[in-house]
Amino acid sequence: MQSLRPVRRAAELGSLGGTTSRTMRMIPVIIMLAVIGAVMAWQLRSLAAESVWYVVPAFAVLVFAGILHVMLQRHGGSSRRRALLFGVGTVALLATGLFAAFGYSFIRLLRGGAPSFEAVWICSAVATGVLAAWLWFRFVRLLRHT
After folding, report:
1. Which residues contact 36 (CB under 8 A, 6 or more apart)?
2. Using alpha carbons only, how large is the chain's radius of gyration in Å?
3. CB of 74 within 8 A of CB of 132?
4. pLDDT (tens digit, 9 = 90+) per residue, 77-98?
5. Region at 76 (left for phi over 0; alpha for psi -120 to 50; beta for the rest)
6. DSSP classification of residue 44
7. Which of 43, 88, 96, 111 is in Cβ range 3.0-4.6 Å of 132 for a Cys bridge?
8. What is the C-alpha end-to-end distance of the chain, expressed in Å?
9. How far apart are CA 136 and CA 146, in angstroms?
């Protein structure tokens, strides 16, 4: 049994080791967000040349991902639950807004009599509605356990 102790100890410390500082754990995330941002900027360069406001939502998603990652790296269960509550609540709110926009557009299309896009709008509205409902369910579960 003594031969398994070093293996157990290594598993307890984690893949980065027990003495790795928080800054060292953040370096891969910072590099990943920088690479994603560079690829995004390269792909959206023609839209950015037209107007900078086309790139702002993508930049906001990257900033949100970075903030959420920093919040999730805190020690302690309650701070991680609060970070999950913040992340799931924000995404649930955005999904609900998207569902409302798809629903409103679908109703406008029905009134205008455009049958060619009805299936696309129905599928989009149902998919975002299901996603929003699931995210709100998760949010309420997290809220009860926090």
Report:
1. 62
2. 22
3. no
4. 788 888 888 889 999 999 999 8
5. left
6. T
7. 96
8. 40
9. 15
